[in-house]
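Collaborator request, handled under Task 6.
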Amino acid sequence: MSHFSFATAGRIVFGEGEAGQLPSLVAALGARPFVCTGGHPDRHAALLERIGGGTHAIAHEPTFDDLRTATAAAREHGADVVIGLGGGAVLDAAKAVAALLANPGDPLHYAEVVGWGNPLLNPALPCVAVPTTSGTGSEVTANAVLTSVEHGVKVSLRSPSMLPTIALVDPGLTLGCPPAVTAHAGLDALVQCIEPFVSSFANPLTDGFCREGIARAGRSLRRAVADGSDRTARADMSLCSLLSGLALANAKLGAAHGLAGSLGGLLGVPHGALTAAVMVAVSRANLAALADDPDHPAVRRYAEVGELLTGTRDADAFLDWFEASAREFGVGGLASLGLREEQIPQVADAARRASSTAGNPVRLPLSTLEEILHSSMAREAR
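Structure tokens returned to the collaborator:
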């Protein structure tokens, strides 16, 4: 590794209770704030009241129509700073609204794959990202994932200026997350630390983030799911999620996310459940493809993941831990999540072309991606 670059949010604020700073941080950026929230904004009513301004609820992963509606509301409000207060979908919507307020035209003008793919030439408005789940790391990434209902796929708006001005991560805001949300988000954060770690684009900076995030998930993910009031576990998972965003934004992901993105647009189920459903099969396929090259960095790193999670330096230790955790959390196979056998070729082809798949440590042929999907169809959840 001799060349790499790194970019992230303008400022990161981390710690329980730091959400109390949000009103003053927002006031320093603009006079007319506009807040994107989740489907239950009442959970943060006191904080929203202190911020003031307009609000708009994003009740699910945003579609293009959702983004059009939110942007129109923000424009009518005269917003000069945008806040995302919610899960990854809400943060993505906020980042996209901040970008579209500064750039004319429809979101499709700037969307990858299904749109025109035009660059966002004007810098986005200031954006403050405040996650209330521990999963996506969206508070430190430069893209927003949108669902194209017409095409049945998830695509991105992407620009360096979409990196939030401030990422404020307060683990206390995650205390109300139910076990299923904690499990799906936490598994996704873990995968987002593992895939950049074995990625062909890994670099010394992201390696440190990945190692720390994997270790924290290993000691705290199961605890956070079992007891949502465990503040130490919640802090670990909030940091794991933040570190995963720092890593994936600068070292890419892999085939698990390429498949999950393709599946998500088709099935409309939680992203974390999809990445968890395919992660073991993807990892086994990568290791099989590298069987004749035991000194390949990814082979050694899969073994190190096992050590970080379990204390045993072996890839099988990682795979066994991950499979057992997914089963314990009730994450079933792809069939239970709605995938039909006849849809597998479509999903595999979309995943082969997905930007996330570009980071996979080895190029997997279409036939292998199909095999991964077939082998991930059945899993008995506990």
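The cover message to the collaborator said: "The chain has a mean pLDDT of 94. The first helix runs from residue 22 to 27. Please let us know whether this matches your experimental observations."
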